[in-house]
Predict the 3D structure of the following.
Amino acid sequence: MIQACSVKKYIPKDEFLFDGYEVTVTDDNDSLPVKNKPELKVALEDVLLPEANSEFLGMYPGLFYYYKVQDSTPGFFNKFMYKQLGEKPIYKSDIEKYEIEELLQNRLNNRGFFYSKTDSKFIDNEKQRTAKVDYSVTVKQSYEMETYQIDSLPSLLQNEIKTIVGTSKFEKGMRFNLAGMKLERERIDEELKKRGYYNFNPSFLIFEADTSQYKNKRFDLFLTLKKDVPKKAIVPYMVTKINVYTNYDLQQDSLQLETVVFNNKNYISDELFFKPKYLDPFITIKADALYDPVASKNTARRLATIGSYKFINIQYKEIDNTEQDSIGKLEASIYLSPLNKRAVRAELQAVTKSNNFAGPALGLTFTNRNLYQGGETLNITAKTGYETQISGGNQSGLTSLELGLGAELFFPRVLFPIKINTNFFKYEIPKTKMGLSIDYLSRSQLYTLLSGTATFGYVWDANRYVTHKINPISVNYTRLSNTTEEFETILDENTFLQSSFEQQFISGLTYSFTYNEMVDANKKHQFYLNALLDVAGNSLSLFGKEETPGEPKTFLNAEYAQYAKADVDMRYHFNFGKDQKIAARLFAGYGYAYGNSDVLPFTKQYYSGGPYSVRAFNSRSLGPGTFDGTLTDSDSYFDQSGNIRLEANAEYRFPVFGFVKGAVFVDAGNVWNSVDNPDIDNDTFSSSFLSELGMGAGVGMRIDVQGFVIRLDLAAPFHDPSLPEGERLDFNTDASVLNFAIGYPF
């Protein structure tokens, strides 16, 4: 394949294919050693352009298809691949190395390394017909700052800038850095904007460096204003009028608009579209307050969370301003363009799972926005799905039919018996969510499961990274029916499974805390933490009654569950190189059944194995403990579960070409029971849990198109806890599992 994709034969005889750069940084003999030399080298490499053609395992796929389409009859396939991957060749003659030397010299000067020297030369590889450029940089001692001072400024700005400069990161001994000075100007401008200086601009500030007082490459840094700065740029501005257009349309007739004054704001519309008392808390811009861009940003973000508007535009206009005014005046106008009130969305999925289940799923969602003129959103969803598992032998339970109908109603405010001051929520006003759903599951030749769920809770972002979700009311009722003799036999042989289906009522509280740095895509180190607490049955125990002494209590003639469950999901991404990433994940979960329950309900138990878990094992086939999955001849349905789960995953992700990504990964994990299941052996958690982890490794290919990811992961176990001790450690490629999934595993 490498030979087939070789491009050497296409390179013109008088050319060499450009193969990249090399930068060497050395100290000048008459100067002190350079501090942070690797950091300086990275900064210099940023100016090296153009980049060499993309290479993969010694091949140039993009360049290969460029050359192929130059043929008189390139063919459809070559044309298609060129559109996806093609790159024009970069030759030695395209490299202007003397211009790059000037850029390197400029970059050195901007960092205080004045009078440094640069040189370059080509290094040709005649055999491969490639050429590199070697840049050598000889660095002089840098200039370092002695003092940072404010020069003469207008009295209106003197105290403001003095306070801002007092928090600067500039310090004695800092190397001269032009980029750092630009950032300092922007920081000062940003702080002045927060103090009302609407017309100020960072370009009005200039830095002057004075080296005349020193002989050892030191300088004093002075900050001052340029000459002829406009008067309006050095006075603060106050917002004196706020207009809110609640259903703005460019085509609407302004003469037909009506104005409602609420909380010192003018709410303007051609009809009552959004009640002012509900919209007002989202607007943090205040009348008779100094202009603050942070308030504008917060207002736009908060309004966007309502979900009723597609465009939010905030504009300011100067009013009644004269040269003699010591403070300016602004009129703020907030233009809100609504989304369509009603919408229908259909989703068709072709589902394939690593446990060999496959089948189509269809979902249909109707949305009604701004339902009661307060930003409420109603979603009604109907779904249906069919799955079947391709397997030999007993087919019991290997096909399933799912039907579901659910409704969610979101209120963009807190619904609570006691009034809560929304000023407490600086970043985002919590949403109140009510949900009601009913689901039907028919598993062939086994059972039918009917379940209904009702929830009431709140969700809000505390800041850019932190999200809280709390459901003080969460009720779930399940009813098992149409059980076959075969399934009854399975229940008789597994009392744990039988008990998990007997708990028909699940009522309690759930709380989720999420810290997510993944929203910053360009961050080098990214952390993610999700903690979940699920407690059920305590409130129902106040009303439950015991029909028979020693038997579980019931509520409305149905047994209810009592348990506490806690999960922690931690992830870390290390981004380096070009689109390369090391991703790691650690999951720990524990569920404790008490009071009315001997075991966690079936829907609350933990499972291990599958495309989002330990990928070398089929879904729900790992554990508990060292259990080998054997119960009876009729147990093809049996899902292996426990009330304790531990998992760890790590993978290296890298680009292959275009939208195709690759991965190498390793997974480990298992589930256990804290109480011995009398129907299976070796399922309890103990101090030897590390030797009972299922472990696997593999490779993956992902097609990532603008965030939509189709994933194929091929994994094989190298430690199988279901095998006898001494036989567990074995890289068994014959037991490989091919996982197909949507999205990244973590």
In short: Residues 243 and 266 are 5 Å apart (CA to CA).
